[in-house]
Amino acid sequence: MPGLFEVSRGVPVGLAIEEILLIAECSLEGEWEGQVRFLPLR
Question: How far apart are CA 27 and CA 30, in angstroms?
Fold first, then answer.
């Protein structure tokens, strides 16, 4: 499984997009493999 990020319905779309972009820019290939994470990460 490559990894999964779940976003609560209460999180504004813009914030979710910012979080996903930040994760993509700062992560190494395969870093999130096999993990389930909830956004926002802060």
Answer: 8
